[in-house]
Amino acid sequence: MTRETHWIVGPGALGRLIALRLAGRVPVRLVGRHRLPGRQTLVTPEGDILVQALAISRIDALPPETPAVVHLTTKAHGAEAAHATLAARLPAGVPLVLWQNGFACQPRLTARHHGPVLCATTTEGAHVQGDDRVTHAGHGHTYLGALEGRHAQLAGALARTLADAGLPAEAVTDIRVRLWRKLAVNAAINPLVARFMIRNGQLRDRPFRPMVERLIAEVAAILEAEGVAPPGGDGLEGWQQMVWQVVEATASNRASMLQDVRAGRLTEHEAILAPLQDAASRHRLPAPGLDGHLQALRRRAAGLAEPPAAC
């Protein structure tokens, strides 16, 4: 990648993590609805404190520059509104990277954006500690690629830029499969921890473990019908192994959906559960567990005053 500016649109935990890691490697501009402090602090997984000055702009007051790439790091339910705000400002051809969970906005924005679109799926962990401080809670890995398998050179260059900045990344041609796999893990974990207000590791115990197993079985049947296999291609057993490995590795974590519930924010239930529900309907498969969680989270969302945020 060149040393032109990277815009990170959505200054939540992931957006600020990306911005702070990239800063110093490439010029960065952090974009949001509200202006944050220009000096931002990153606490690394090793406990180091990194302080970095960032260029910060409101999405409605952007400077007259053309970014090298736009990283859209809003929550899934705010991604399309943020993109609509940016679209009139961006010339055709500017690459867009979508960092959202689930598999809802990615196909729509890929079709809508006037330029290359990459999707990212990451296991990097981060949480916000204030307007000027974010904690990088755990090292992970990021995969990048276009849904239609194009833009391999762009994906490779961006992966190298991220890796050089301390965020290990890899360009792949099967990002669609990887997005579905992450969605499967999120669907088996997030609704339960959010509804019962528990940490991930508590899913290993009763009464939650049988609930997880039922969700895995539903998801496995749906994704088999969609032609998506788990790593190793071992059917239900492969999905079970993948989900429980994540639970074990993140046992002490509060999932993002739980953090949203605790903060009184909208959750990403539509992006994570609705695509599976739609696929189950197409293939005429029963999914009572997924349906129950989705309806419960929709009822909660209906009672919140917060509208979908642009960023």
Automatic annotation (TrEMBL):
Pfam family, one: ApbA_C
Segments forming domain Ketopantoate reductase C-terminal: 174-298
EC number, as in UniProt: 1.1.1.169
Gene Ontology CC terms: cytoplasm
Keyword Transcription regulation included in the entry's annotation: no
Pathway as given in its UniProt record: Cofactor biosynthesis; (R)-pantothenate biosynthesis; (R)-pantoate from 3-methyl-2-oxobutanoate: step 2/2
InterPro entries according to UniProt: 6-PGluconate_DH-like_C_sf (IPR008927), 6PGD_dom2 (IPR013328), ApbA (IPR003710), Ketopantoate_reductase (IPR050838), KPA_reductase (IPR013752), KPR_N (IPR013332), NAD(P)-bd_dom_sf (IPR036291)
Catalytic reaction equation(s): (R)-pantoate + NADP(+) = 2-dehydropantoate + NADPH + H(+)
Signal peptide: none
Molecular function in Gene Ontology: 2-dehydropantoate 2-reductase activity; NADP binding
Keyword set, alphabetical order: NADP, Oxidoreductase, Pantothenate biosynthesis
Gene3D superfamilies: N-(1-d-carboxylethyl)-l-norvaline Dehydrogenase, domain 2 (1.10.1040.10), NAD(P)-binding Rossmann-like Domain (3.40.50.720)
Residues of the Ketopantoate reductase N-terminal domain: 8-148
NCBIfam families in the cross-refs: apbA_panE
Family label: Belongs to the ketopantoate reductase family.
The protein's role, per its UniProt record: Catalyzes the NADPH-dependent reduction of ketopantoate into pantoic acid.
Record's protein name: 2-dehydropantoate 2-reductase
Classification lineage: Bacteria, Pseudomonadati, Pseudomonadota, Gammaproteobacteria, Oceanospirillales
